[in-house]
């Protein structure tokens, strides 16, 4: 066994343990999460062992898997968009009996392996790479309309990073990609961030209109709140005198204080070195989604700055050793797959911490291995098992 | 081996190490930045988190004690006020028009500019109005303030934007004629400032705040409470009516004489009680505290003191004559001058006409040691012990520095620095039968049922002590009576009253030289046989052409005495004014339940709220457990009761 693999394995165990601990601390207000998490972890161990025992990278080197998988995912996402059950104003989950699956988590794994396959199989074929990229964009647009802005942005971002790392860019490709992204973003602005009045004028379908109205109001506010943190001025340009003034802008209540952000802010400013102790936190006690999207704020209050720093350190060493495994592996396909997995886990953690510590605008992104969430935990543990399977 | 072959082939592209390191480095540095920003924002001074955070604490404010004058008129009291305010960001949100409409309820106006300035200020809360509590809930016209606000909310479509607080506010009823240096409190940009008695007796007046602690929870079942102990009131010896008269007369005199400062002290020589204490200045108004902080050279008002020392030691007799050298007396290198040319003068006449030469000749007869010690026993060079912050000692040389020349100049009031309070006390000693009585301004602390208790702080001070003998004092009284009848103080004479007094004029030191500005003073007392009231007047730097004490200070004294005599005639004749009875406490009556043996406080069966009310009225602290009705209780100690209700 390699040292890097040992580091990855041990940090995975520690992160899982940390997640169980934090989910146990939520037990005082919401009981179900801890027991579900215990079930999931035990299921995850089974999956982990199975992948280690039976998985071979040759399985993923067949073309029909990607074609079929792509079609299935495309159909599932469109199905969700049209017939999905809304939950918290979003149609992200596919319900099969008692089980609910978050399809976008599976898309993550699919996208990484698709890119790895395309680079491995068609390193000089520009057209093929563009088709792959376009397909990923289509998938991300579908995810965007769930609505899940963060996840779709995340998928596009990761795939771009992987292409960049592979040196798969020249002038031609950059122009094509930029035009692609530009066209899609124009379409997005037209459909997604459309003001209500315009929507009425163009007479969209009932469903689309309702969705547009509900999304725009809070996401606009999040963006404004974020920009005002760095530039709290109103620009006042007087044409007659050619004078430019910066008027200080006082916060409007609806924009300045959301319930979550004010609580998170308070929790950060009152954080201490060793924290209040598990399930002793009072500021995060009634913070919505604290078991999932705001789990590091919970950790900050209850285990202190030290606990959060240990958490961050685990992710950091995990990322570095995964990259080392990828660089040392002999096959091109495995190299890209492992590097992609490393980036996915690390960037997700980065975005999560950024949002939680209020460096980035608000967006619910879960922390891998630690946050409560079934599909994401299983997919992440599968990824780690794949990494451990790589031949060095 | 396979790998190296593969790299060279064109159809395979491995990960480029450089780009990978670059991208990963960017990510990792951003990751570290996120954590660093978090640590910088966090409260890293604390190691462990707030324990007991869920215990909510609330301060129960004690009511500050009031200040009364000697006739139990209130000087400083508390008003229960309703304060109406609004958060600044709310004021910005509702806009100018609605804000103006809200202000118009309280008869206030605001311009758009003022509003903009207010909104962009740093205050968290904007104060809108302060109204006495009873007025706030009374019907004014047809509807109360609350009704008006409610109707305005409806018409303007507003939320509940106003904040209401109720609190006690300090109130000075006699603010206009009452010297602020005595007792005053105000709020500045720096915070609360306390002056005079409010500062020295702060621990008596302020009382002890109570604390209410409870669990911040959806169920309110458990809370402990420590009742506040209200501050005690203090009673002054000041007579408000006398104070008023003096203040008004001094205010006029300040304009008339164009003086810098005027001090007036009205006191009772026998007991040292101060009836009025006025210190006005052109520059600082009534906040001027120079009356006990500023030292000056007293001038001829010093002569009675030196004279009484000489008489008391048997060195001179009243009928002894001294030659006054026709106005010029050479003593070594020094020349002493008189304001007039005098020939032979008796001891009495020296004081009547205020001859410096005669007085210095008397002083030369006294031994250095006795002169120094007796002046000290008159209280010079020591604080009188008035309860004010930073009282001055005056300027008085130590004995090693004390010389023959000092003695001579001290005999007519130069070479010594005194405060007005010191001087009045020393002259009272000459007049009241020879006792040094330290001045008092606080009669005592108001106890239960309006009984006045002695202030413990006053006991630390020097008590009464004998300085000169009674016969000397009575001789000096007669001599001082002559000053008003025959001497320099003739302008202070009043028909039909026996008044004694002494004038004083001194040049002021500017740098190292005596300038052309003067301090005129007059000390007077009446009646001469048994002095009941003494008045000491100091006029600093009169600029109206006249500067002698007999011309400036004596007329002011006369005016004051004419006005205050009818006010204090009753008290002079020892007629006591009955103190009004205190209202009976109805609150201590038991509420509903009779006391039994196993229920000494009579709490069982009461509802929790009634029990708490009753306990707090009887002055107990308590811990409550449970809710509903009182099942049981027990005494934890003399002061504390644990009350147990129905279980949660």
Quick recap of the structure?
The complex is a heterodimer of chains A (392) and B (648). Chain A is mostly helical. Chain A has helices at residues 3-25, 32-54, 63-83, 103-121, 126-144, 149-165, 171-191, 196-202, 206-230, 253-256, 259-269, 295-328, 332-356, 374-389; strands at 93-96, 99-102, 233-238, 243-248.
The overall average pLDDT of chain B, rounded, is: 84
**What value does the Rg of chain A take, in angstroms?**
22 Å
> Which strand-content bin applies to the residues of chain A?
5-15%
User: What is the SS-derived class of chain B?
Assistant: alpha+beta
Structural class of chain A: mainly alpha
**Strand composition percent of chain B:** 15-25%
Q: Please, how many domains of chain A?
A: 3
Give the beta-strand count of chain B.
Answer: 26
Mean pLDDT of chain A: 84
Oligomeric status of the shown chains? heterodimer
Largest interface: A-B, 54 and 43 residues
**Poorly predicted segments of chain A:** none
The helicity of chain B comes to 25-40%
How many individual helices of chain A? 14
| Overall geometric form of chain B | elongated
Q: How many individual β-strands of chain A?
A: 4
Topology pattern of chain A, helix = H, strand = E:
HHHEEHHHHHHEEHHHHH
Distance between the termini of chain B: 78 Å
Shape of chain A: globular
């Amino acid at each position: 066994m390699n040292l890097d693999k040992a580091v990855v394995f041990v940090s995975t165990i520690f992160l899982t343990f940390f997640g169980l601990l934090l989910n146990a601390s939520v037990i005082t207000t919401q009981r179900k999460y801890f027991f579900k998490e215990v079930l999931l972890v035990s299921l995850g161990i089974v999956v982990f062992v199975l992948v280690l025992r039976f998985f071979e990278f040759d399985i993923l080197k067949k073309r029909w898997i990607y074609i079929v998988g792509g079609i299935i995912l495309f159909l599932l996402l469109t199905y969700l968009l049209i017939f999905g059950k809304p939950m918290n104003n979003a149609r992200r989950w596919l319900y099969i009996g008692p089980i609910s699956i978050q399809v976008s988590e599976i898309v993550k794994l699919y996208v990484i392996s698709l890119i790895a396959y395309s680079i491995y199989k068609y390193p000089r074929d520009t057209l093929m790479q563009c088709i792959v990229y376009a397909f990923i964009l289509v998938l991300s647009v579908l995810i965007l309309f769930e609505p899940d802005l963060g996840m779709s942005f995340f998928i596009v971002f990761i795939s771009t990073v992987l292409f960049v790392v592979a040196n798969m860019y020249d002038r031609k490709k950059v122009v094509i990609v930029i035009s692609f992204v530009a066209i899609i973003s124009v379409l997005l602005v037209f459909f997604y961030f459309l003001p209500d009045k315009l929507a009425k004028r163009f007479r969209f379908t009932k469903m689309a209109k309702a969705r547009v109205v509900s999304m725009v109001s809070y996401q606009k506010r999040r963006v404004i709140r974020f920009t005002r943190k760095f530039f709290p001025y109103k620009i006042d340009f007087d044409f007659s005198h050619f004078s430019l003034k910066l008027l200080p802008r006082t916060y409007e209540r609806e924009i300045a204080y959301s319930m979550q952000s004010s609580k998170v802010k308070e929790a950060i400013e009152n954080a201490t070195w060793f924290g209040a102790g598990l399930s002793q936190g009072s500021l995060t006690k009634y913070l919505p989604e604290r078991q999932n999207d705001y789990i590091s704020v919970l950790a900050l209050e209850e285990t202190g700055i030290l606990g959060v720093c240990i958490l961050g350190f685990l992710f950091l060493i995990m990322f570095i050793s995964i990259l080392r495994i990828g660089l040392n592996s002999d096959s091109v396909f495995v190299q890209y797959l492992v590097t992609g997995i490393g980036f996915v886990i690390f960037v997700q953690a980065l975005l999560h911490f950024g949002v939680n510590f209020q460096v980035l605008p608000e967006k619910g992104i879960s922390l891998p291995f630690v946050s409560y969430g079934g599909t994401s935990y299983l997919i992440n543990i599968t990824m780690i098992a794949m990494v451990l399977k790589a031949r060095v | 081996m396979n790998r190296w072959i593969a790299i060279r082939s064109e159809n395979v592209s491995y990960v480029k190490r450089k780009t990978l390191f670059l991208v990963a480095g960017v990510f990792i540095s951003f990751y570290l930045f996120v954590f660093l920003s978090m640590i910088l924002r966090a409260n890293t001074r604390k190691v462990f988190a707030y324990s007991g955070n869920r215990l909510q604490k609330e301060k129960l404010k004690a009511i500050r004690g009031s200040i009364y004058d000697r006739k139990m008129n209130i000087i400083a009291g508390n008003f229960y006020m309703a304060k109406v305010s609004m958060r600044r960001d709310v004021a910005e949100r509702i806009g100018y028009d609605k804000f103006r409409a809200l202000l118009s309820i309280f008869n206030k106006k605001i311009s758009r500019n003022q509003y903009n300035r207010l909104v962009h200020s740093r205050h968290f809360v904007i104060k809108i109005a302060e109204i006495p509590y009873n007025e706030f809930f009374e019907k004014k016209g047809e509807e109360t303030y609350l009704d008006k606000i409610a109707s305005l909310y409806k018409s303007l479509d507003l939320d509940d934007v106003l904040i209401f607080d109720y609190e006690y506010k300090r109130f000075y009823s006699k603010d206009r004629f009452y010297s602020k240096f005595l007792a005053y409190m105000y709020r500045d940009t720096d915070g609360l400032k306390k002056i005079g008695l409010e500062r020295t007796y702060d621990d008596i007046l302020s009382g002890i705040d109570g604390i209410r602690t409870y669990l911040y929870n959806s169920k309110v079942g458990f809370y402990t409470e420590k009742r506040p102990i209200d501050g005690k009131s203090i009673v002054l010896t000041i007579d408000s009516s006398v104070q008023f008269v003096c203040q008004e007369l001094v205010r006029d005199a300040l304009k008339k004489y164009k003086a810098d400062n005027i001090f007036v002290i009205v006191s009772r020589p026998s007991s040292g009680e101060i009836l009025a204490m006025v210190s006005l200045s052109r520059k600082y108004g009534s906040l001027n505290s120079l009356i006990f902080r500023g030292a000056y050279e007293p001038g001829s008002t010093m002569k009675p003191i030196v004279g009484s020392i000489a008489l008391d030691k048997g060195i001179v007799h009243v009928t002894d004559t001294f030659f006054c050298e026709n106005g010029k007396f050479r003593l070594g290198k020094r020349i002493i001058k008189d304001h007039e040319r005098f020939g032979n003068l008796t001891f009495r006449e020296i004081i009547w006409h205020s001859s410096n030469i005669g007085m210095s000749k008397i002083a030369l007869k006294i031994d250095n040691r006795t002169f120094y010690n007796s002046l000290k026993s008159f209280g010079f060079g020591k604080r009188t012990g008035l309860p004010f912050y930073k009282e001055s000692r005056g300027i008085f040389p130590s004995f090693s520095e004390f010389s023959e020349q000092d003695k001579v100049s001290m005999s007519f009031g130069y070479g010594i620095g005194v405060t007005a309070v010191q001087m009045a006390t020393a002259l009272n000693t000459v007049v009241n039968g020879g006792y040094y009585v330290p001045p008092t301004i606080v009669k005592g602390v108001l106890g239960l049922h309006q009984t006045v208790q002695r202030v413990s702080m006053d006991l630390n001070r020097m008590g009464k002590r004998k300085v000169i003998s009674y016969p000397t004092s009575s001789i000096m009284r007669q001599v001082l009576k002559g000053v008003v009848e025959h001497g320099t103080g003739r302008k202070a004479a009043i028909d039909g009253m026996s008044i004694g007094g002494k004038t004083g004029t001194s040049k002021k030191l500017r740098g190292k030289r005596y300038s052309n500005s003067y301090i005129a003073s007059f000390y007077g007392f009446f009646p001469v046989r048994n002095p009941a009231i003494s008045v000491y007047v100091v006029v600093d730097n009169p600029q109206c052409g006249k500067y002698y004490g007999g011309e400036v200070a004596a007329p002011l004294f006369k005016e004051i005495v004419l006005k205050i005599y009818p006010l204090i005639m009753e008290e002079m004749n020892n007629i006591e004014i009955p103190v009004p009875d205190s209202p009976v406490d109805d609150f201590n009556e038991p509420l509903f339940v009779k006391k039994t043996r196993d229920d000494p406080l009579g709490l069982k069966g009461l509802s929790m709220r009634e029990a708490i009310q009753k306990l707090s009225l009887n002055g107990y602290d308590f811990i409550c457990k449970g809710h509903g009705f009182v099942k049981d209780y027990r005494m934890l100690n003399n002061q504390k009761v644990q009350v147990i209700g129905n279980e949660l």
